[in-house]
Task: inverse folding
């Protein structure tokens, strides 16, 4: 019965008095995963004395920061009622092409021979991400193709470009500036964690309180109604897709710094985890529903589970199965504690 | 000039495909029914297993080079992208184009059986590289003993640690025979010879990100980790060093808190790290020898030669692995600081 109070209703230009309630309920939906996370933390503390140490928890945050940015991107795109599978290829390809444009063309470095100045690597990387997102937008919005198929094609194409440009090898010779963000610590916490955190805070604020952000829910809920209400839907969705590409490229920079090299399979299969995190966190695949805070909880939960399984030294043959079962249990738990039907 | 030649080749391939298609794919009547005997200049088809790993990329570079050296009439190679269904299709294309011998590296060693059966019926000899099919007839398996990788790594770490301490092992994909062989050999060797060593097995599916996260977690849990065994240098080297660097664990070999690291693959970056003292050893998987001997045996098959089990003239041993199949087990040397500059190591020959 509280269904009508889900976030998308908050986007319709309602009188000021009606606005407060939906937000409170939205927050309630936000917290759906919190009980599951608390149970995980309690179990973790019992199972291993290492689990609750600051060092371990901050490491989990660092390991999840790149994934968090991808989930942020995907969550916004899903809320706007679209789809982007190609993010998992962008996270690898954007850094690879940016690096290839600045390093020398030796056998080891795999440059393209342009040897542009090294400081350009990061801006280039973000630009490439934006370009992929923009291209997705062009095909989806102007050519009116299905977002699923377009971005699936883009996933395959961009993955292929990655292998083509890198020659299938891992890139080891990277400019130090490119490694900085994924490796350095700011005030005891990895820089990548700060970046992901700031990105999420901005995202949450914009999607909760700004007209442009709220319009994502309107578009995802009902495009025609959004159009009728005067929202320039294409411009908004296009912006979100471009932003998604940029966030994926940024995630690629963080991941590169963390791992110290770019493997030819970087990001492969990651999109499943991205969707898992987003959907567990309450983002609807049908668009228009869910919050970024929920998605963030999804990311944290997956990270904690992974960490816990490592600490428990779970047998490699059973790792995947146990991982999956715990995720399912957590879903049931969140369903029981909130009483909300998942979509 | 290269693009021109390539386009000519493409046209040739396209023409061949058309011809093969018009001949309805049946190659049994007429053309050399004895297949294996006779023409040493018959076409050899080569399929590469994947293009996205450092080791296989080196192999891909070596194959055309040795084909020229050994005078093998090699067709344009195909690439099966780590998928057995693509491999099956590629083999059909190659035989359709007139291949009289096939070199392949089936990563799924079970699912290739029916293809091998079909090739046997067509009297097309097969050389498999890196993996030994579970079933079916092959002319020769060219492979380094992956169990030996695990054992060599275990002995090196066990000795360096004096038989006690904690070791982290990055396992490859347990669904691949090579990952499994290395894991099992390492585990059983440790159990038998160094019961005082605790091994933490980390499943990674050959993904650097998973290895990095596992190592971080393990170092929090056990700050006294003394050794690391990574089953693939290409995937795990940079992530491992990055974690050790950020946690101040990357110490010179003479430091009492040095973590001993042994790797597998032998890519140039691993050798560079050994020189710098960042890692201690690697088992060099012979990418060059794989290419050379695979083509050698393919040609030998066309000439109708046969081989017997026993030592060979190139420092390896041919072993009867049952099923009437032979396997040339190439040596995979352990590389340490002492022999890292050896010119014979393939990692020293490429990329410079």
Result:
């Amino acid at each position: 019965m509280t269904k009508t109070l889900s976030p998308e209703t908050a986007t319709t230009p309602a009188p000021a008095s009606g606005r407060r309630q939906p937000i409170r309920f939205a927050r309630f939906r936000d917290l759906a995963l919190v009980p599951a996370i608390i149970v995980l933390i309690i179990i973790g503390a019992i199972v291993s004395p290492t689990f609750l140490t600051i060092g371990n928890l901050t490491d989990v945050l660092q390991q999840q920061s790149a994934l968090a940015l991808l989930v942020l991107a995907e969550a916004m795109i899903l809320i706007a009622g679209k789809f982007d599978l190609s993010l998992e290829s962008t996270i690898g390809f954007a850094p690879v092409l940016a690096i290839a444009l600045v390093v020398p063309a030796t056998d080891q470095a795999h440059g393209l021979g342009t040897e542009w100045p090294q400081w350009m690597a990061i801006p280039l990387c973000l630009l490439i991400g934006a370009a992929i997102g923009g291209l997705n937008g062009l095909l989806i919005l102007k050519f009116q193709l299905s977002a699923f198929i377009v971005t699936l094609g883009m996933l395959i194409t961009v993955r292929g470009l990655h292998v083509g440009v890198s020659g299938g090898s891992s890139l080891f010779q990277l400019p130090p500036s490119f490694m900085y963000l994924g490796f350095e610590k700011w005030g005891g916490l990895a820089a990548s964690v700060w970046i992901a955190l700031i990105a999420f805070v901005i995202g949450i604020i914009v999607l909760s309180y700004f007209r442009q952000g709220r319009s994502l829910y309107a578009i995802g809920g009902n495009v025609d109604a959004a159009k009728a209400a005067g929202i320039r839907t294409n411009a908004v969705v296009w912006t979100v897709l471009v932003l998604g590409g940029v966030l994926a490229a940024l995630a690629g920079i963080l991941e590169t710094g963390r791992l110290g090299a770019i493997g030819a399979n970087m990001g492969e299969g990651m999109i499943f985890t991205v969707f898992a995190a987003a959907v567990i966190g309450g983002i609807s695949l049908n668009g228009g529903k869910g919050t970024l805070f929920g998605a963030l909880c999804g990311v944290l939960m997956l990270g904690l589970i992974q960490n816990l399984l490592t600490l428990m030294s779970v047998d490699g043959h059973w790792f995947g199965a146990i991982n999956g079962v715990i995720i399912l249990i957590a879903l049931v738990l969140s369903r029981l504690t909130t009483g909300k039907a998942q979509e | 000039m290269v693009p021109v030649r390539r386009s000519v080749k493409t046209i040739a391939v396209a023409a061949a495909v058309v011809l093969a298609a018009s001949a309805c794919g049946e190659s049994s009547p007429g053309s050399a029914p004895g297949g294996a005997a006779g023409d040493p200049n018959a076409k050899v088809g080569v399929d590469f297993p994947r293009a996205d790993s450092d080791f296989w990329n080196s192999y891909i570079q070596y194959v055309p080079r040795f084909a020229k050296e050994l005078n093998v009439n090699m067709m344009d190679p195909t690439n099966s992208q780590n998928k057995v269904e693509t491999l099956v299709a590629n083999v059909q294309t190659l035989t359709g184009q007139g291949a009289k011998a096939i070199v392949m590296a089936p990563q799924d060693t079970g699912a290739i059986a029916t293809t091998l059966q079909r090739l046997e019926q067509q009297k097309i000899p097969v050389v498999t590289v890196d993996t030994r099919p579970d079933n079916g007839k092959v002319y020769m398996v060219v492979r380094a003993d992956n169990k030996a990788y695990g054992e060599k790594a275990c002995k090196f770490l066990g000795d360096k640690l004096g038989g006690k301490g904690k070791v982290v092992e990055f396992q490859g994909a347990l669904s691949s025979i090579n990952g499994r062989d290395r894991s099992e050999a390492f585990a059983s060797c440790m159990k038998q010879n160094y019961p005082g060593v605790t091994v933490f097995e980390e499943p990674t599916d050959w993904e650097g990100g998973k290895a990095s996260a596992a190592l971080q977690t393990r170092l929090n849990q056990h700050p006294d980790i003394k050794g690391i065994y990574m089953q693939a240098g290409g995937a795990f080297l940079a992530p491992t060093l990055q974690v050790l660097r950020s946690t101040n664990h990357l110490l010179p070999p003479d430091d009492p808190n040095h973590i001993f690291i042994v790797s597998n693959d032998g890519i140039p970056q691993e050798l560079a790290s050994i020189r710098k003292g960042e890692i201690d050893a690697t088992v060099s998987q012979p990418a060059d020898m794989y290419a050379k001997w695979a083509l050698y045996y393919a040609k030998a098959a066309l000439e109708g030669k046969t081989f017997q089990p026993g030592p060979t003239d190139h420092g390896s041993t041919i072993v009867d692995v049952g099923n009437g199949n032979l396997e040339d087990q190439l040596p995979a040397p352990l590389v340490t600081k002492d022999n890292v500059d050896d010119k014979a190591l393939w990692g020293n020959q490429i990329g410079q």
Q: What stands out?
A: Residues 39-138+287-331 of chain B form a domain with the Rossmann fold fold (CATH 3.40.50.2300). The radius of gyration of chain B is 22 Å. Chain B is about 40% helix and 20% strand. Confidence is low (pLDDT under 50) at residues 1-6, 12-36 of chain B.
